[in-house]
Write a structure and sequence with these properties.
heterodimer, A: 129 residues, mainly alpha, rod-shaped, disordered N terminus, B: 202 residues, Arc Repressor Mutant, subunit A, 2 domains, globular
């Protein structure tokens, strides 16, 4: 323990050590209980596989779920997309009809012609009294 | 200290890092703390002179050791524990000084408490004569009072070298001073104690 270089007195230090040990052995029961509790509290912090690890894992899971929900809601479309399919169906119907396509191209002309024919057939109908 | 660890946790790997949550690690740490807690408390009481504060200090030291260094090799635990404990004790001294309440009481510490003192070659002391059995109880009480009269740095050197059995290098690490400073603090402490306890010598 001590050496000559330090010029200490082994007999004195031995006496001192023995006295300190006696004092320590005489620590009262209440203090010893407090020390045991303090030790238990310290040891409780050494076991992260238990409840703390479970809680830590749950926290990360909850954060991940929350982030996913927020992301999904933020990119979710608020207006429906343009209805392209019905137009496509109309085009298909046109193509499928066994009619001359020129008829449909001049459809406005034929409509006007029909209106003109109706007017000629009854140019000024007199009001009936 | 190491023998305590071997007795209570025979499977504990003393020199290598310890796997987390290992049962042996838990047993080893518990055995270590059980082995040092009384002396740590007694040291803290002597140095801070307040039983409640001493208990808080010991609890903090145990908690910090477990939380931060449980996975370090068990052979490092004693030094780490004493470093934490004594840092906490010295923090308490500094806080009290800052608060001013204990200024006069700790004035004598100012000489060599905070700074690293220069090593002085001491003279050889007069040989101490062993005490009679009946004198031992009175000696223990007188020693308690005498230790409380020492400056904080001398108390540290005294407790770490004489009671905990750390060598000069380890004590210097715990106190964060040079090895020469440790020797000087210890020499002054022992000289003061011998002087205060001189009545027990013929």
């Amino acid at each position: 323990m001590m050496n000559k270089d330090e010029h200490t007195d082994a007999a004195f230090t031995q006496e001192v050590r023995a006295a300190l040990d006696v004092q320590t052995a005489g620590i009262d029961a209440q203090t010893l209980t407090q020390l045991r509790r303090a030790r238990a509290r310290a040891m409780a912090s050494l076991q992260p596989t238990g409840l703390r690890a479970w809680a830590r894992g749950r926290t990360w899971s909850a954060l991940a779920v929350t982030a996913t929900v927020v992301l999904t809601v933020s990119i979710w479309p608020t207006t429906p997309p343009p209805r392209a399919i019905p137009h496509a169906m109309e085009d298909i119907e046109l193509l499928a009809v066994d009619e001359n396509i020129e008829f449909y191209e001049d459809l406005e002309f034929y409509t006007w012609l029909a209106d003109e024919d109706a007017t000629v057939a009854d140019p000024d109908p007199a009001p009936r009294v | 200290m190491i023998s305590v660890l071997r007795e209570y946790a025979p499977g504990l790997e003393l020199d290598g890092p310890v796997a987390e949550n290992n049962d042996t690690q838990v047993q080893g740490m518990e055995a270590f703390l059980a082995g040092v807690e009384r002396r740590a408390y007694r040291t803290a009481v002597s140095m801070v002179r307040d039983t409640h504060e001493a208990m808080d200090i010991v609890q903090d030291a145990m908690l910090k050791l477990v939380q931060r260094y449980a996975n370090r090799p068990a052979t490092e635990w004693p030094l780490l524990f004493h470093r934490i404990l004594h840092n906490r004790i010295m923090d308490t001294h500094r806080r009290r000084k800052a608060e001013g309440f204990w200024v006069r009481l700790f004035d004598r510490d100012a000489e060599d408490s905070e700074r690293d003192v220069v090593y002085e070659e001491p003279a050889a002391p007069v040989q101490w004569q062993p005490l009679a059995q009946l004198e031992r109880a009175a000696f223990a009480t007188a020693l308690d009072a005498a230790v409380q009269n020492l400056p904080a740095r001398q108390q540290q050197a005294f407790f770490l070298r004489i009671w905990e059995g750390l060598d000069v290098q380890q004590t210097a690490q715990v106190m964060a001073v040079s090895e020469g400073s440790v020797k000087t603090h210890l020499f002054r402490a022992l000289a003061s104690l011998r002087q205060q306890l001189g009545e027990f010598q013929p």
